[in-house]
Specification:
Helices cover about 45% and strands about 10% of the residues. It contains ten helices and six strands. A six-stranded parallel β-sheet has the order 5-4-3-2-1-6, sandwiched between helices.
Length: about 250
């Protein structure tokens, strides 16, 4: 079943346009994003152990289809962002709740709840590595300045290979690598779920802040990170116009 290429194509265009605006704002080049995407796709598809590791195009498609099925069956899907605190997760969730972590925020989840995937551009450090060791699927993103990070990660993960889904942030079309929209890991996670067909009414955002850098964020320039969080707000508003006006814990 090849659902992903045409899923929400018309709707997605406004989200993908935001990526062009972000590149312009930060003086990043489109060509660098394209190159990273192509190289990551090739690194997985042509890996000498692709089938053994579960990273071939067909196996990644199976991972994607299985994840989609799981998320569409969920009672609610809780998206965990970088400003999450453990006590926000230490509660009785409805039966059938699924969790999706934004990169390093998986550290807030582990030993409390088990995410069905982590959306990551590989800034998550030791927390992401812990998720890899548990075999949690990664929605792994390529952009212009993380080539060395994903190369090092793939080399490191040969010992304990996580299931992978690949995403990018260009207008190029691939059958086995996708652009669901979004910019930061947090808003890309929302875009990814919406792209899969999860209704925003079934999503809950925990630890999503647009005014401070969360404790689960990777090492970053705080001022630059706040600028990026402003773009996250733009993406969230594009998906659901009321979200920015509501406190994160009260969002749909």
């Amino acid at each position: 079943m090849r659902f992903a290429i045409n899923m929400g194509e018309a709707f997605r265009e406004d989200l993908i346009t935001v990526q062009d605006r972000v590149r312009a704002a930060f003086n990043w080049t489109y060509e660098a994003d394209v190159e990273s995407a192509k190289l990551l796709r090739t690194a997985c598809n042509d890996h000498s152990q692709a089938d053994t590791l579960g990273w071939s195009a067909s196996q990644r498609q199976q991972t994607l289809e299985g994840l989609r099925s799981r998320l569409l069956r969920a009672t609610i899907v809780v998206l965990v962002g970088a400003d999450a605190s453990p006590n926000q997760l230490d509660r009785a969730w409805p039966v059938g709740t699924e969790f999706v972590a934004a990169d390093g925020a998986v550290g807030a989840c582990l030993e409390r709840v088990t995410p069905c995937c982590v959306v990551t551009d590989l800034d998550g450090g030791e927390h992401l590595e812990a998720a890899v060791k548990q075999g949690i699927p990664l929605v792994m993103h390529a952009h212009g300045d993380n080539v060395q990070a994903w190369k090092a990660s793939l080399n490191r993960w040969v010992a304990t290979p996580p299931p992978l889904i690949l995403t990018h942030q260009t207008h190029e079309k691939y059958e086995d690598m996708f652009n669901p929209g979004g910019f930061t890991d947090g808003d890309r996670a929302v875009c990814f779920l919406h792209w899969l067909g999860v209704d925003v009414k079934n999503m809950r955002l925990v630890g999503y802040s647009t005014h401070r850098v969360g404790s689960w964020s990777g090492q970053t320039d705080p001022a630059r990170k706040l600028e990026k969080l402003g773009w996250m707000a733009t993406v969230l508003d594009t998906i659901h116009p009321t979200w920015r006006a509501v406190e994160p814990e009260k969002r749909p």
